[in-house]
Amino acid sequence: MRQFLTSITICILACIFTKVYASNMENAYVFADGDSTSILPKNYSYAEGEPKKYIISNISVEGLVQNQEYVILNTINMMKGDTILFPGQSIPMAARRLWDMHAFSNIRVETNPRGDSIDIKFLMEERKRVLSWNWIGANKTQKKDLNQKLHLRRGSELSDYVMNNNIRLIKEYYRDKGQRNAEVTFIVTPDSILKNGVNVTYEVTPGKKVKIGEIVIEGNENLSAKKMIKSMENTKKVSINFFNDTKFHDKDFPSDLVLIEDFMHSKGYRDGVVLEDSLYNISKKRIGIWIKVKEGQKYYYRNVSWIGNSIYNTQVLSNILEVQKGDTYDSEGTGARLGTNGKTKQGQTNVRGMYVDNGYLGYQISAEERVVNGDSVDLDIKMYEGSQFVINDVQFTGNYRTNDHVIRRELETVPGDLYSESLLIRTYQRLASMGQFDSKSFKTPEVIPNRQTETVDLKYSLEEISNDQFELSGGWGSGSFIASVGVNFTNVSMRDVFKKGAWKPYPSGDNQTVGINIQTNGTYYSAISANFVEPWLGGDKPRQFSVSAWFSRQTDSYYNSYYGYSGTYNGWFNVWGGQANLGRRLSWPDPYFQFSIGVNAQVYQMSNWNSFLISDGKCHTVALQLSLSRNSVDDLYQYPTSGSYFSISADLTPPFSRFDGIDYKDPYLSDQDRYRWVEYHKWKLMAQWYFPLTPDRKLILVTRGQYGYLGHYNQYKPSPFEGFIVGGDGLSGYTMYGSENVGLRGYANNSLTPGYGYGVYSRIYSKYTVEMRYPIMHQGSTMVYGLVFGEAGNAFTTIRDFKPFDLKKSAGIGLRLFVPVLGQLGIDWGYGFDPVEGDNSTRSGSQFHFSMGYQF
After folding, report:
1. Mean local confidence (pLDDT), 697-713
2. Nearest CA to 304 among 333, 334, 332?
3. 70 CA to centre of own chain
4. Whole-structure pTM value
5. Can you name the residues that pair with 584 across neighbouring β-strands?
């Protein structure tokens, strides 16, 4: 009888435990939102009495549709024959591991203790699996973006949490696009084949785009509300400035409110604060923003104390700080000049930068403010100078084609030198100028200081791009179509030409350039040119050596075919030429300067060439080429955002007429004798600036001015070669008589050249350009950006004809595509507002232009 009662008691307790346990399990995840971190309530008591050891006699799993039983058994980490404590943690922990799989919407556990054994049964209810995600109301681009944003994939589980979170993300996506009233619903339909599968369709009603119609500032008594609004970087209202993003960005708005406070602080209102803000609807397309501020009283600086400085004296530091007693309080300007708030402008000297650029890597500075006499502030600037750190080791990763020594020679941060942040910036500019790395992927190098040895290691992370270019293009010149094919390899290693296994597809790694170009249109015109550039001649100093050679041949077959003599020619015009240049970087006035010197030689050979001054004979030119340039542009190859480029060059031939004994005043002197040795001096000037207009450095203003002048030593011997052809896209297919093409959009090719087509070219020109650029797409090495431009320029026959304000003006829009293999491709539409050469009554009007490379 006693044994019977004991058995009955055990069964009752087991039933009570199973019921209570199952009940609590169900309550723990009744909504199955997937974010539960605990299966059971804290401090839960499973059953009364002391835990007892049981041997698992059987474990079973029921309710599986897609999941495999062996996966479940492996997950619970229990098996038949194991000994567990019951009541205890073994079963709850097993259920928790199953729950963490996010594969089940309900888990129940049934237990059946019998003597020293126990049977355990897991009753599972699997979540529905989504077999397809569909969209109604979203376009193709939006579907792609949303699929990526929501990480939608076939076979993922369906839960209330997933669906609610997805709706939130969808609305957030449309809100970022200005469609703040987007509505989202979904439909879940069972799959007709898979029992546990469903198909989900999101129905989206994006609604109209909502922009900021007005921003109202309340509470300002002394400061301009307009200037407060202007201080916000990402919150702009609709205005005539169509470049502004006038959508409301929830994520950026709090930081813009901080900028309003910073603005008040910069004007002396140290206690200025934003009290509250709200949004309100103006119409279906416009919202308003209300911001309430409190300025407080205005403060002034009184005394400034420097504490801890020994390297630089107080006077030097005070000159940088530029704070005098009685000046209006300005925490923003003071922080920028101290270098403590990250708002130092480019080129502005700050105290921290002065120390860090001199090796004081551990330098620390802080400014403590003390309010005195109600409206005055004393500034105590405390600093720890520390010791100078020396660069110990420099490493870099990401170069798979470019050789290590090629990168290392461009580094401005050299082991043994003092650490300097400005040298880090200059190093990245050097690496960007190589054209082998994606400058947009540059990150601040990892700085690893060693406090004990007072040294620092640097690690640069690079991302290589292919800058080789293949050209297949055509142009229109002298009434005919000219086909051009060329290739330009920019990372060649000539020393490995004969190295076995180096041709992949060519010996690479030394940043040398080898190019070849062929142009032809059949029997009328053909040309071939080749070039080679070594950026570090000798390998020890940045001496750039370049050499190039070319040959072209033009015949009169085009004119003969026009008159019915197809396929034959009587006259021809050949040009042989070559040049060699040697340039090197300068350390003065600053490291951005470069000087080069070279020699250019050409031979013009004519036979029965009646369309030029000389019909038969040869003309020779030998010119000394000098060039001085300064380049601080951050990225010349894809999308420059800051810096400037300046160059002045001169091509100078010997003044043969001064010593050859020929009387060039003689009107009977033949043109062959007059121009056997051509003489001239040719000058070119170009200046270009890049200004970022937005904090993200995307909207860029580009300004450019350029001039060219071809002069003579003897007025009776002006050069018939080396003139300028102005107008159009600068791609005329080929050049004649050594002339230089200068593009000016909005006008047809060559249309601004005085007397073009008769062997007479302009000898002086000027051109001015203003562009606004904005990137459309940047993925890897591919870049697309749009632009709007305004241009003005003109060309003149002689310097006496030159009128600096007689300019042909144009404006338009364009698109640029940078592809590694093809280089930069462009299309522009321009409208010329003025007549062209020879037509003083009709505007040039609408013109389309195509470009390859960097003509403009």
Report:
1. 94
2. 334
3. 51
4. 0.70
5. 543, 595
